[in-house]
Write a structure and sequence with these properties.
The chain is an alpha/beta fold. It folds into two domains: 97 residues, Urease, subunit C, domain 1, CATH 2.30.40.10; 206 residues, Metal-dependent hydrolases (TIM Barrel). The strands form three sheets. Strands 1, 2, 3, 4, 5, 16, 17 and 18 form an eight-stranded mixed beta sheet that branches. Helix 3 packs across helix 4, helix 4 runs parallel beside helix 5 and helix 11 packs across helix 12. The protein is globular. The chain binds N-(iminomethyl)-L-glutamic acid and zinc ion.
């Protein structure tokens, strides 16, 4: 049995270059790949048949920003925040301490459970980061454990200077032995460029060293206030800058300029720096929701991601993030679905093989418990995920 026909799809959202939405559609999966897409009446025969019963089918969510390697609990910090305390980067130390005390087996099990939870919610391709190790052995251990469970991993040694450590000495370690130890397990490097974490110059030093080591770049920027993160990401050719809550006109223009060689209508050309919005995090930290509308109108490709982490966003629900983007961020349903699929794929430079339902791409599919995808926002919080295929296998 190698091929499966998924038929009787009420609304098939391809997110392909023509942005096709096919009524009464069908998809054929051949092992881990998509082999055919089109109207059900023209579908070829297959070994197996799955009746979608008139429900909507989307590409699986691409979650391009998570921090799944952690132990411990920060619910009291969250409760205090809801009572009026503001978020500060220092909370990262609490998780670092708890994670250090978890064995390899315990930590691996936590990551496995979190990935399973994400996949059960429609996520089929995901990134995760280190960043709660903050030491050579711990960062390498977190990268090694993560690499077994996720599609792509990021080195975030530059998440915070640990308490009592000299910043310059720490950056020497991040750009030297820590980077070297994490390198075999990661594709990306990230830096938390923000007041209370790393300055522009410190961030540039880290990003340069990581780029020289062959890693792609990403930046946490402009989360808690205006700052240099977004412009630094654009300057360094980062694949993505994430959070982007507080943007000046110059920031938006700098990101827009990185997309000059890209045609968003056909999703072709040379991609620039994706602006990754993290609505669940914005709600949990009481930050203004990222200005996705301004970014889209400036020609910037936007991604939506969960930022699942214990400090600022303890949810991997992409359904929730898409609902919020439509309800609160003035994104149309099509824009939000694209941002949570192809947008995430662009942020991870994986757009050639995931992020849309097209022949030859990985068979990553998300069947909704609804006849149309707008139900994600129309019925927020309802259990919308009916079935998931990840690389052709039911998740
Ligand atoms: N902003 C930096 N890092 C995480 C939060 C880390 C934490 O507080 O544990 C984020 O993406 O929001
Ligand atoms: Zn993050």
């Amino acid at each position: 049995m190698t091929t499966t026909l998924i038929t009787n799809i009420g609304e098939l959202r391809t997110v392909d270059p023509e942005q096709r939405v096919i009524r009464d559609g069908a998809v054929v999966i051949d092992r881990e790949q998509i082999a055919w897409v089109g109207p059900a009446v023209h579908a070829p025969a297959a070994d197996k048949r799955f009746d979608a019963a008139g429900r909507a089918l989307l590409p699986g969510w691409v979650d391009s920003h998570t921090h799944l390697v952690f132990a411990g609990d920060r619910s009291a910090e969250f409760e205090a925040r809801m009572a009026g305390q503001s978020y500060a980067a220092g909370g990262i130390n609490v998780t670092t301490e708890a994670t250090r005390n978890a064995s390899d087996a315990e930590l691996a099990d936590l990551i496995r459970q979190r990935v399973a939870e994400a996949v059960a919610g429609g996520t089929t391709y995901l990134e995760t980061k280190t960043g709660y190790g903050l030491g050579v052995e711990e960062e390498a251990r977190h990268a090694r454990l993560a690499a077994d469970y996720v599609d792509t991993a990021t080195f975030l040694g530059a998440h915070l200077v640990p308490k009592g450590v000299d910043a310059a000495a720490y950056i020497d370690s991040v750009t030297g032995p820590m980077l070297e130890a994490a390198l075999p397990y990661v594709d990306w490097a990230d830096v938390f460029c923000e007041t209370g974490a790393f300055s522009e110059e410190q961030s540039r030093t880290v990003l340069r060293a990581c780029a020289e080591a062959g890693l792609g770049l990403r930046v946490h920027g402009n989360q808690l206030g205006q700052g240099p993160g977004v412009r630094l990401a654009a300057e360094m050719g980062a694949a993505s800058v994430d959070h982007v809550n507080h943007l000046s006109e110059d920031d938006v223009a700098a990101l827009g300029a990185t997309w000059a060689e890209w045609d968003s209508a056909t999703a072709s050309g040379t991609p620039g720096t994706v602006a990754t919005c993290l609505p669940a995090c914005d709600l949990s930290t009481r930050q203004p929701l990222a200005p996705a509308r301004r970014l889209l109108d400036a020609g910037v490709e936007v991604a939506l991601a969960s930022n699942c982490n214990p400090g600022t966003s303890y949810t991997s629900s992409m359904n929730f993030n898409v609902s919020t983007a439509v309800l609160q961020m003035h994104m149309s349903l099509s824009e939000a679905v694209r941002a949570a699929t192809l947008g995430g794929a662009l942020a991870l430079r994986a757009q050639e093989w995931v992020g849309s339902i097209e022949v030859g791409k990985r068979a990553d599919l998300h069947l909704l418990n609804a006849p149309a995808a707008i139900h994600l926002a129309y019925r927020p919080g309802m259990p919308m995920t009916a079935a998931v295929w990840r690389a052709g296998r039911r998740g």
